[in-house]
Amino acid sequence: MWAKISIQDEREKKSEDFFYKGGIIEFVDYLDSARSPIHKKPIYFEKEINQVPVEIALQYNSTFTENILSYCNNVNTIEGGTHLSGFKSALTRTLNNYALKNNLIKPNDKVTLQGEDVREGLTADGWCAS
């Protein structure tokens, strides 16, 4: 497992490589290095479905801002995309299901966790190949 990010400034013919031996887990640690993480190690998932590999690392910190980076085919998708929308909705759905299953939210309550709530203080990085 490793992650390498290469940045190239074609105007001035400069480039810089960032290499993370621990992959996106180490990259999320780096992104959160100036923050106070709520849990020590990032949560990490990797799966391949229909020959499409996906990796996600996430960690919550004590800030109020979200910092989600996503890449598809090694391209930073700064404007989002369906995979980023899917991640956000899956995270919200998963935490709502967990809360219901563990009686943190009552089934008859009209209260559910909203996307903004579950992404507050979240640092995440993910990539897929399509």
Mean pLDDT: 89
Rg, Å, rounded: 17 Å
Report the total helices: 3
**Which strand order do you get reading across the main beta sheet?**
3-4-7-5-6
Q: Which range best describes the helical content: under 10%, 10-25%, 25-40%, 40-55%, 55-70% or over 70%?
A: 25-40%
Low-confidence stretches: none
Q: Which structural category do the helix and sheet elements fall into?
A: alpha+beta
CATH topology: Ribosomal Protein S5, domain 2
What is the straight-line distance between the termini?
A: 19 Å
Profile the largest sheet. Answer: 5 strands, mixed
β-strand amount: 25-35%
What best-fitting shape do the alpha-carbon axes yield?
globular
CATH class: Alpha Beta
Tell me the number of strands.
7
Summarize the structure.
With 130 residues, this protein is α+β, with helices and mostly antiparallel strands. It has helices at 23-31, 82-101, 115-118, and strands at 3-9, 14-20, 43-49, 52-60, 67-72, 75-76, 122-128. Strands 3-4-7-5-6 form a five-stranded mixed sheet, covered by helices on one side. A two-stranded antiparallel ribbon has the order 1-2.
What do you see in this structure?
- The chain is an alpha+beta fold and 130 residues long.
- The chain has a single domain, classed as Ribosomal Protein S5, domain 2, CATH 3.30.230.10.
- It is built from three helices and seven strands.
- The chain has helices spanning 23-31, 82-101, 115-118, and strands spanning 3-9, 14-20, 43-49, 52-60, 67-72, 75-76, 122-128.
- It has a five-stranded mixed beta sheet, covered by helices on one side. A two-stranded antiparallel sheet has the order 1-2.
- Strand 1 and strand 2 (14-20) form a beta hairpin.
- The chain is globular.
- The two termini are 19 Å apart.
- The model has no long low-confidence stretch (mean pLDDT 89).
